[in-house]
Write a structure and sequence with these properties.
With 461 residues, the protein is an alpha/beta fold. The protein is 51% helix and 17% strand. Strands 6, 7, 8, 9, 10, 11, 12 and 13 form an eight-stranded mixed β-sheet that branches. A five-stranded mixed β-sheet has the order 3-2-1-4-5. The longest helix has 34 residues. The chain is extended. The N and C termini lie far apart (78 Å).
Length: 461
């Protein structure tokens, strides 16, 4: 049927001879190898021949084929003008897993791309991980007996985000596989550096997609909750997990965050953030954690049934000190029956009340991935609020020095621009558009901030 509608050469029913079919396969191999120009020239000659024979229908089909071919090869434009022959690696990860992307560049053109996510079963830095990846990617080529074939697989250059631990030995090994010199290096500048950043960006997107898919997978989430239940000796799976974190700068702009995960998925509508009320001259995470938890449970009756529900597991970011603070806070306000644990960042250990040793979840397990994601989300939510308060305070303090800007105008400027950096980059007409700020005052503000910036720059010099 495909042959009848000219979508297949149909060798199975004899619509093409074995020799012609072999030539067709050779053309396809040339095209996939990147030699599209030769194939295009061949089609163009056939089109001219068809037109000379007055077979205009066939010539039109060949014309359309050439246009489609040129459109397809536009995506494979020259990436590196110097005819580079290289594999470019990008790497993005955390303590548990890493996303890897590889661009295969041949004759300056991107001929292929690969990507995958690896679990870190060992504590590896980027240099060690790169060494493992090179051994994995090129290890199969090392088992081939035909070194001429390896010359097509092993490039002249291997560009990596960090130099592997034993770069000299790897270089010798790859050069032996290729049959000629291979270099391993980290691109520092120019087009190769720019392309390496693109590869790294692809790895970032791949890791984000992997995390999203993993978080959305019902089977994985169920497994994570079951593992966590067994590891902590809980009577049932922790369907509602609340996690708390503190962010401060030497006791200033101190905030607390509360994030909620329902059935293993984040529930942003239930998040809460707290501005610490206690006056402290130094950072005191324990006292701040106690305040946040007391305020959270004391206000539950005012927040409706949804927020009033107690968590099945209460996590705090930190170690035994934060765990003790959480327990004391719950006891002070008479909250009982809430399982509490603290997650320490360094070793990813869970501390549980009255347990002699911390709980260590298996590396790469769904349960470890879940608690780490919950903790990281609490940290992100806290530090975002902390930076917001700090930025507004810095903006307000500088605006206090501008003549003619009182509390009302200062508040309007802070609301409109949010930070000194954005205000400093604004033009006079943008500043004058703020309510209560006229053109003359706007010009004074812009001039004052410009003078302030020049003074700071000369002092730094």
């Amino acid at each position: 049927l495909l042959g009848y509608i000219d979508k297949c050469s149909a060798p199975c029913v004899g619509r093409i001879s074995p020799d012609d079919h072999q030539a067709l396969a050779a053309d396809f191999c040339d095209f996939m190898a990147g030699d599209a120009a030769k194939f295009t020239r061949r089609l163009a000659q056939r089109m001219r021949d068809a037109a000379a024979d007055l077979d205009f229908e066939q010539a039109a089909r060949l014309r359309d084929d050439i246009a489609a071919l040129e459109h397809a090869t536009e995506r494979n434009a020259v990436a590196l003008a110097d005819g580079t022959d290289a594999d470019i690696f990008g790497l993005v990860g955390d303590e548990l897993e890493a996303a890897v992307q590889v661009f295969h560049v041949r004759d300056g053109r991107i001929r292929g791309q690969r990507g995958w996510v690896v679990e870190k079963v060992e504590d590896l830095d980027d240099a060690d991980l790169v060494e493992h990846l090179l051994q994995q990617v090129y290890g199969e080529a090392g088992s081939w007996s035909d070194l001429s074939a390896n010359a097509d697989v092993i490039p002249r250059e291997v560009l990596v985000p960090a130099m592997p631990t034993d770069a000299g030995q790897l270089t010798t090994w790859l050069s032996g596989l290729r049959g000629s010199q291979v270099s391993i290096r980290v691109p520092q500048r120019g087009p190769k550096r720019a392309l390496a950043e693109t590869v790294r960006s692809n790895a970032e997107h791949a890791l984000a997609l992997h995390r999203s898919n993993r978080a959305g997978d019902l089977t994985t989430r169920s497994q994570a909750l079951t593992e966590l239940q067994e590891a902590l000796g809980m009577p049932s799976a922790p369907l509602r997990i609340e996690c708390y974190d503190i962010s401060t700068l030497h006791g200033r702009f101190s905030v607390g965050s509360m994030v909620v995960f329902e059935a293993g998925r984040a529930d942003p509508s239930a998040y809460r953030r707290f501005r610490i009320r206690a006056e402290t001259s130094e950072s005191n995470d324990v006292a701040m954690m106690r305040e946040v938890l007391q305020r959270r449970f004391q206000r539950e009756a005012k927040e409706g049934a949804r927020f009033a529900r107690h968590p099945d597991l209460l996590l705090v970011d930190g170690g035994t000190a934060q765990l003790s603070a959480a327990i004391e806070a719950l006891e002070d306000i008479g909250v009982t029956g809430v399982p509490v644990a603290a997650l320490a960042k360094r070793e990813e250990e869970l501390f549980v009340p009255e347990w002699d040793a911390p709980v260590v979840l298996p590396g790469g397990s769904p349960s470890l991935y879940l608690v780490k994601r919950v903790r990281d989300e609490a940290h992100r939510f806290a530090i975002t609020y902390h930076r917001e308060l700090r930025g507004k305070a810095m903006t307000a303090s500088i605006l206090d020095e501008i003549p003619g800007v009182g509390p009302t105008r200062k508040q309007a400027l802070v609301k409109a621009f949010g930070s000194v950096k954005r205000l400093r980059g604004a033009k006079v007409d943008e500043v004058s558009a703020v309510k209560g700020i006229g053109a003359e005052l706007a010009a004074d503000i812009v001039e004052f901030l410009a003078t302030l910036a020049d003074t700071a720059e000369s002092e730094s010099e």
